[in-house]
């Protein structure tokens, strides 16, 4: 892989396979170190459930979640290069039926999910918005307003470490924050 960040699926069914990074500088892939920490904090593996990756980029976090036992992942992305990269990375899993890529922005994507007949409430949400688009509070409020989350759902936001989010957003309560260099992961639980 020339010029891109080396990424891989760390563990689970698809573990060890290499993923493509989105070309250019418009996306920041979640590093393997942060991805590994994220899943260790969440308990490592899942016994089914649905995952939502709201700003999917390369799709690496959603693919990791399915590799570790999630039944299905929905991914939102509206950047053309990122969409092509996600499609290639989903092919690498050889399980494309476990992924639904919605080629739209989060605002429209959440409304689309709310109207899908085959949609089950999500138990894990990951959001890593471009730092200049910090709409995390609004996104979390919309998840609740549109009834998209299961009871005890967890939302994880990857942000610049300077970003401070409220302890409570609607029925979501912040329960953990960890920092890695310039990045922070903030965990919320739905109550």
How many E strands?
10
Shape: globular
* Strand line-up across the major sheet: 5-4-3-6-7-10-9-8
User: What is the SS-derived class?
Assistant: alpha/beta
Share of residues in helices: 25-40%
User: Which ranges are low-confidence, i.e. pLDDT below 50, for 5 or more consecutive residues?
Assistant: none
% residues in beta strands = 25-35%
Keywords:
eight-stranded mixed sheet, 5 helices, alpha/beta, two-stranded antiparallel sheet, 191 residues
Concise summary:
With 191 residues, this protein is α/β, with parallel strands linked by helices. 28% of the residues lie in helices and 28% in strands.
Please specify the SSE layout and strand pairing:
Blueprint: E1 7-8, E2 18-19, H1 32-42, E3 50-53, H2 60-67, E4 72-76, H3 80-93, E5 99-102, H4 106-115, E6 122-127, H5 136-145, E7 149-160, E8 168-169, E9 172-180, E10 183-190
Parallel strand pairs: 3-4, 3-6, 4-5, 6-7
Antiparallel strand pairs: 1-2, 7-10, 8-9, 9-10
Walk me through what this model shows.
The chain is of the alpha/beta class. 28% of the residues lie in helices and 28% in strands. It has 5 helices and 10 strands; from the N terminus they run ββαβαβαβαβαββββ. The protein has helices spanning 32-42, 60-67, 80-93, 106-115, 136-145, and strands at 7-8, 18-19, 50-53, 72-76, 99-102, 122-127, 149-160, 168-169, 172-180, 183-190. It has an 8-stranded mixed beta sheet. The longest helix has 14 residues, at 80-93. It starts with 6 loop residues before the first strand and ends with a strand.
């Amino acid at each position: 892989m020339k010029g891109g960040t080396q990424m891989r699926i760390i563990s689970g069914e698809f573990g060890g396979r290499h993923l493509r990074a989105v070309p250019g500088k418009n996306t920041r892939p979640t590093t393997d170190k942060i991805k590994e920490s994220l899943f260790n904090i969440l308990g490592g593996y899942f016994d089914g459930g649905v995952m939502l990756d709201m700003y999917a980029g390369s799709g690496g976090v959603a693919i990791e979640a399915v590799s570790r036992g999630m039944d299905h992942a929905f991914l939102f992305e509206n950047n053309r290069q990122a969409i092509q990269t996600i499609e290639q990375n989903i092919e690498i899993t050889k399980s494309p039926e476990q992924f639904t890529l919605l080629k739209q922005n989060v605002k429209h994507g959440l409304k689309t999910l709310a109207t899908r007949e085959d949609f089950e409430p999500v138990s894990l949400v990951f959001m890593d918005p471009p730092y200049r688009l910090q709409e995390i509070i609004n996104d979390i409020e919309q998840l609740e307003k549109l009834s998209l989350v299961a009871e005890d759902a967890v939302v994880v936001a990857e942000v610049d470490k300077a970003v401070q989010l409220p302890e409570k957003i609607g029925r979501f309560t912040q329960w953990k924050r960890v920092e890695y260099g310039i990045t922070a992961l903030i965990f919320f639980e739905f109550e």
